[in-house]
Design a protein that fits this description.
By secondary structure, this protein is an alpha+beta fold. It has helices at residues 2-16, 49-68, 73-95, 119-158; strands spanning 23-26, 30-37, 105-111, 115-117. Pathway: Protein modification; lipoprotein biosynthesis (signal peptide cleavage).
Length: 160
C-alpha cells in the first residue's frame, strides 16, 4: 500500500505541481512544490545516483527478508513502512529520468525552507518511529520483569 500511495502521489505531483511555485498548506511551514532529487536526504550524494540506486536495491532485499522473519506485529509493521518507503524511492531511481539506475526521486512536500520530500520519506520515518517505540516498549517490559524478579528474590530474604 505504501508503494502504491507513494507512486500515485508522485504522479499527481508531476502533473499538477511546479518547480518554481509553492502552494502553501500550513503557511510557510508546509507546502507543495515539485523537486527532483538525484541524491539522498538533503541532496547528499547527488553525484553518485547509480551508487544510491544499488544501495537502495540492496536495502530493499534485506528489508524484504527481515519482513518475512518478523516475529511481532510491531516489528512487521515498522519494517513494512520502511520497506514501502525504500521501494517507492528505488522505483524512481530505476525508472525516472534521466535514465535507468540514475533516476531522480520525485519530491513535493516542502518543509519550510529546509527540504522537500515525499510520502516514501514519510513512510520511512513512520517505520523508524514504530520500531523505536517497539524496542523501547520491549526494553521497558524486560527491565520491569527483571526488577520484579529481583524484588521477589529480595522479599523472601527480607521475610527471614
Amino acid at each position: 500500500m505504501v508503494v502504491l500511495i507513494d507512486q500515485a502521489s508522485k504522479a499527481a505531483a508531476l502533473s499538477e505541481l511546479s518547480e518554481t511555485d509553492r502552494i502553501p498548506l500550513l503557511g510557510d511551514v508546509l507546502g507543495l512544490q515539485l523537486a527532483f532529487n538525484p541524491g539522498a536526504i538533503l541532496g547528499l550524494g547527488s553525484g553518485a545516483t547509480w551508487l544510491l540506486t544499488l544501495l537502495g536495491v540492496a536495502a530493499t532485499v534485506v528489508l524484504f527478508i527481515a519482513a518475512l522473519r518478523a516475529r511481532t506485529e510491531w516489528w512487521a509493521a515498522g519494517i513494512g513502512f520502511i520497506l514501502g518507503g525504500a521501494l517507492g524511492n528505488v522505483i524512481d531511481r530505476l525508472l525516472a529520468p534521466p535514465g535507468f539506475g540514475r533516476g531522480y526521486v520525485t519530491d513535493f512536500l516542502a518543509y519550510g525552507n529546509w527540504f522537500i520530500g515525499n510520502l516514501a520519506d514519510v513512510a520511512l520515518g513512520i517505520g523508524v518511529l514504530i520500531l523505536a517505540i517497539g524496542v523501547w516498549g520491549s526494553h521497558r517490559a524486560t527491565t520491569r520483569s527483571d526488577a520484579s524478579a529481583h524484588l521477589g528474590s529480595n522479599s523472601s530474604v527480607g521475610g527471614l
